[in-house]
UniProtKB/TrEMBL annotation:
Residues 601-668 are annotated as: Disordered. GO terms for cellular component: Sec62/Sec63 complex. GO terms for molecular function: protein transmembrane transporter activity; RNA binding. Residues 610-642 have a biased composition (Acidic residues). It is found in: Endoplasmic reticulum membrane. This is J domain-containing protein. Gene3D superfamilies: 5' to 3' exonuclease, C-terminal subdomain, C2 domain, DnaJ domain, Sec63 N-terminal domain-like domain. GO terms for biological process: post-translational protein targeting to endoplasmic reticulum membrane; SRP-dependent cotranslational protein targeting to membrane. Residues 99-164 form the J domain.
Length: 668
């Protein structure tokens, strides 16, 4: 029975240990994240962003941010740990170790006469004949008599001095740290123990496995539904125009989960009238187009109307239910790297820019002497179409013209021509200081070889540098109409605009400097070691790379296999998903030589060239031509552009063929 009591007393210690193992590291991680957020503010501080309330830290917002489910659970678990520690501390006080010298009030090593004298003195106080109190009788029998016997009997005293117990060496005992009512298998307690074992050892792992499998079968590793990826792969076409990306974007399966209520019919009808000009409806058959639009799935209709209302910055007029639905569906489109198609990738990024800045897609159409349209101007605070027309009369027609002006000239333009107040001008300057200026330095080479030959593994190395007027490297964009915090993301694409193929793509992030330093150092070390550089040269190159990262540069490095022989006029794109008009495009000329080195991949290379690979390429080209014909019939708006491109390509091909035939005839 005593053993069961001891095992039952260990149960709180067991629970405390199991709680502390995951709780302490998780708490440290949460505190580190909270401390990192208290750094220098990296968001826009203009009056428009301040009125949006996204970055305002009121006492109520701080309480609401703290009162999350995870934080409250964390606090509750720490309270439970505190209660367990207090209980265990008090329990340890109740457990007294048998110490005969302290019971008799003596110092260790006392003589036998002192022991007998102390025993007689305590006997007068606690002996049953002298003190009728039952507690005194119990204390005398269990403590005083036992202590006197342990110190006066030679064998008992020797055992106590050697093993700490009058009876000598004690056997090793093992127990289960469970409460007493679970260890008693008689009656109902046996059923409780059985249920506990079944629940913890069988049911709990089974529930976790079912939840994980059900979620993994529904979502991908990027938390995107499999149905969404299937729909995007089906509707995404090689030459998809940016204006058509919205039609593909709203096909996401996540939007099908947005509730469709009968009470939303009238507000959506009013919203349709407001955003009708942005829906790309055929004005010649407007009635048929409207009927066709409303025949779509109700969730798709609701999604497109809400997104267009956000782009027109008209979400404030929505009903509370529609505003909640919009915040639920406010997700950002991502670039589809897997296809390798340039136009859809650029279109997705441009749609993301319009969503973040709440600018309609129609504003990106060029006009009035500005190739990028009025979209870059509309992301600035207090700007409107009327203001853009006013400053255009002063020959400020492109957004870059406005950015290149001096501070004084821009102040005079906005205050005198646009009619801005001093506060409005200051807001514009703050946003312009937040906007990034991007430079890209790209190189393509084969490591350890001179020139690039067919089939070589080409290494792409690009240094992307971001400069801002306020000195920040990573920052949150000016996005007062977007309901959530949004970090800037950049996409590096090396593509061939003529063939619409993306050769290489990579995401670039400026928010995490430590990760960028580690990645750049590792990449530079591997590159230098592969080229046979000395350790001193490798160390020097690594230090230079680290300094570049600290000053606002990021290293993009990757590989691709060189195509067939020829000169390729590529373009490197550095696209930002948050700002309009800040993208960078750089021309990259790559010359692929004929294979003369050994070690090519694929078929064996002879003097006549890789016949097997050429045949495969011809089959792929035929397939692409057949696919393009089907695609052009589906998207009639892009038919003229496609025909012009094919005509130019055919003309260039005929010219090359004729020149090659003439050169062969001259050789003959």
């Amino acid at each position: 029975m005593a053993t069961s009591d001891e095992n039952s007393g260990l149960f709180p210690i067991f629970i405390l240990t199991m709680l502390a193992i995951p709780l302490v590291p998780y708490t440290i991680l949460k505190l580190c994240r909270a401390a990192s957020k208290k750094a220098k503010p990296i968001h826009c501080e203009c009056s428009v962003c301040s009125r949006s309330g996204k970055y305002r830290r009121s006492i109520f917002k701080r309480i609401s941010n703290f009162s999350t489910c995870s934080n409250m659970t964390l606090v509750l678990l720490w309270v439970v740990m505190g209660v367990l520690v207090y209980y265990i501390k008090n329990m340890s006080r109740e457990i007294q170790v048998f110490e005969p010298f302290s019971i008799l009030g003596l110092e260790p090593g006392a003589s036998e006469s002192e022991i007998r004298k102390a025993y007689r003195k305590l006997s007068i106080l606690y002996h049953p004949d002298k003190n009728p109190d039952p507690d005194a009788n119990k204390y005398f029998v269990e403590s005083i008599s036992k202590a006197y016997q342990a110190l006066t009997d030679p064998i008992s005293r020797e055992n106590f001095e050697k093993y700490g117990h009058p009876d000598g060496r004690q056997g090793f005992q093992m127990g289960i740290a469970l409460p007493q009512f679970l260890l008693n298998i008689d009656g109902a307690s046996g059923g409780i123990l059985l249920l506990w074992i079944v629940g913890v050892c069988i049911l709990l792992p089974l529930v976790v496995a079912v939840v994980y499998l059900s979620r993994s079968s529904k979502y991908t590793g990027n938390y995107v539904m499999h149905q969404t990826l299937s729909a995007y792969y089906y509707f995404m076409k090689p030459s998809l125009a940016p204006s058509k990306v919205m039609d593909v974007f709203i096909k996401a399966a996540e939007y099908m989960e947005i509730p469709v209520r009968r009470s939303d019919a009238e507000p959506l009808q009013k919203l349709f009238v407001v955003v009708r000009s942005e829906l790309n409806l055929d004005l010649k058959n407007i009635k048929q187009e409207q009927a066709k639009f409303w025949k779509q799935h109700p969730a798709l209709v609701k999604t497109e109307l809400l997104v267009q209302a956000h782009l027109l910055r008209d979400t404030a007029a929505l009903s509370p239910e529609l505003q909640r639905d919009f915040k639920r569906m406010a997700i950002i489109p991502r670039t589809a790297q897997g296809h390798g198609w340039l136009r859809p990738a650029v279109g997705v990024v441009e749609l993301s820019q319009c969503v973040i800045q709440a600018v309609p897609l129609s504003a990106k159409k060029g006009g009035g002497g500005s190739p990028e349209g009025s979209a870059p101007f509309l992301q600035l605070p207090h700007f409107s179409e009327a203001v853009i027309k006013k400053i255009a009369r002063k020959k400020v027609r492109s957004f870059q013209d406005l950015r290149d002006m001096t501070l004084q000239d821009r102040d005079d333009l906005l205050s005198q021509v646009a009619g801005f107040t001093a506060a409005h001008v200051q807001d514009v300057e703050r946003v312009l200081e937040m906007m990034p200026s991007i430079t890209v330095d790209v190189t393509c080479e084969t490591e350890g070889e001179e020139g690039i030959q067919e089939g070589d593994v080409v290494t792409v190395q690009a240094w992307v540098t971001v400069k801002r007027g306020n000195g920040l490297i990573g920052a949150l964009p000016h996005a007062p109409y977007y309901p959530f915090h949004k970090e800037e993301n950049y996409w590096f694409l090396l593509a061939d605009p003529n063939s619409n193929n993306v050769w290489f793509s990579q995401k670039v992030i400026f928010m995490d400097e430590a990760t960028a330093i580690t990645a750049a150092s590792k990449a530079i070390e591997e590159t230098m070691e592969g080229s046979g550089a000395s350790p001193k040269e490798t160390s020097k190159a690594t230090k230079e790379a680290i300094e570049k990262v600290k000053t606002g540069s990021r290293l993009v490095i990757g590989k691709f296999q060189a195509p067939a022989e020829g000169n390729y006029n590529l373009t490197s794109y550095l696209l930002c998903d948050s700002w309009i008009g800040c993208d960078n495009r750089t021309s990259v000329k790559v010359k692929i030589l004929k294979r003369t080195r050994a070690g090519t991949r694929g078929a064996h290379i002879t003097e006549e060239g890789p016949i097997t690979e050429d045949g495969a390429e011809e089959e792929e080209e035929n397939d692409e031509e057949e696919y393009d014909e089907d695609y052009e019939s589906e998207y009639s708006e892009d038919e003229e552009d496609a025909r012009e491109t094919n005509t130019k390509a055919a003309a260039n091909g005929n010219g090359r063929q004729s020149s090659s035939e003439s050169s062969e005839s001259e050789e003959d």
